[in-house]
Amino acid sequence: MTPCESVCLAGDIGGTKTRLLLARCHGQAPEVLFEQRYGSGEFRDFDLLLEDFLRAAPQPTQVQAACLGVAGPVLDGAVSVTNLPWRLEAESLSQRLRAPVRLINDFDATARGIDHLRAQDLVCLQQGTLVANGPRLVIGAGTGLGISFSLNMGKGYQVIPTEAGRNAFAPTTPEQVELWQHLYAHHARATFELLLSGKGLMRIYDFICLQRGVAEDVSIGAAVDPAAEIVQRSGEPGTHGHEACAAAVDLFLQIYGARAGDLALTILARGGVFIAGGIAPKLLARLQSGVFMEAFLSKGIHSKFVRNVPVHVVTNERVAVLGSLATAEALVRHEPAQITASAAPV
Fold it and tell me: Is 251 exposed, middle or buried (0-12, 13-18, 19+ CB in 10 A)?
């Protein structure tokens, strides 16, 4: 098998779910050979999950290169997964697979996957004015809050992974000041990730109930996915959903939009803002109803700038694994890992 026709392993490893795939890469559209999605918490460590995946693959296949996008900061070729007791090391995985392995942050992988999406994988919140090769922001609330920047310095986009989700939460309204006080009373440090995540939405719901003097619905906390339960009960805009749930979702989106707008200003994201993560697709109707974009655009004298920034929601949950696959292909070809190389989605 030549480098132009190689089998690559790609992955998206998060605190809630892990997606792995094997694909034959031959210079055009990669051919998916096998793909599986797992509940991350079902495995004691990643090695056991990988063993299960390779054993379940339809036929023994020698991997030529692998790239795994992992939720956590990758330092010196190793990463401890945020919200899981897993630690991955590129060197030991390379020995296991007998192939080169690259570990990258999951939102590094997400940013690399943006150019491998189809038009139907994006929902436009604001058309804006796209500047070719302009800086990009990718932000996404899910199990945690992922944030990455992409800059084009003349040789294709290069991703700057961050842990900006752990930045201190900055309230922008009197109600949010009260929320900050509530958060501070229960945590040593009030960060954006404590609010802009699945557990964060539950924290906001708790705050809303306390603020309004209403009893929390115990069935929400007892649900398998409390955040999804809150979203479901919040109802569509203009309908009579659960009032506390609707208020919690609106406050969540207000904070989310303000944070995305601030970061768009930080890097002058004229190449676009991409809202990824598992929560946004579940809230499309409310994202399009105005609360998120009102907060995004509320930037005082800089509001005119953010009104020209394209904003899209990523609805393809495979975006990170597509970015990992593109990076694994580049590893086979011994090329710098860039996210602008043309490739059809798999």
Answer: buried
State how beta strands 6-13 and 17-25 pair: antiparallel
Distances (CA, A) of 299 to 24, 80, 126, 295, 335: 47, 36, 16, 8, 40
Indicate whether 309 and 324 sit together in one domain: no
**Measured torsion, CA atoms of residues 179, 17, 69, 279, in degrees rounded to the nearest 10:** -40
Residue 82: inside a domain, yes or no? Answer: yes
CATH code of the domain in which 260 resides: 3.40.367.20
Helix (H, G, I), strand (E, B) or coil at 37: strand
* CA 96 to chain CA mean position, Å: 28
Give the HSE-up count for residue 53: Cα atoms under 13 Å, Cβ half-sphere.
24
Task: Say whether both 195 and 272 belong to one domain.
Answer: yes
Q: Are residues 178 and 46 in the same domain?
A: no
One digit per residue, the tens of pLDDT, for the chain of length 346 reads: 454 578 999 999 998 999 999 999 876 788 999 999 999 999 999 999 999 999 999 876 789 999 999 999 999 999 999 889 999 999 999 999 999 999 999 999 999 999 999 999 999 999 999 999 999 999 999 999 999 999 998 888 999 999 999 999 999 999 999 999 999 999 989 999 999 999 999 999 999 999 999 999 999 999 999 999 999 999 866 666 689 999 999 999 999 999 999 999 999 999 999 999 999 999 998 898 889 999 999 999 999 999 999 999 999 999 999 999 999 999 988 765 544 333 323 3
- Identify whether the C-beta of residue 38 lies closer than 8 Å to the C-beta of residue 18: yes
Positive or negative torsion for Cα 236, 238, 241, 246: positive
Which residues does 1 contact at the CB level (< 8 Å), separation at least 6?
7, 62, 64
Residue type, 233: R
Helix residue ranges per DSSP H, 122-216: 174-186, 198-212
Q: Do residues 191 and 253 share a domain?
A: yes
* N- to C-terminal Cα separation, the chain: 20
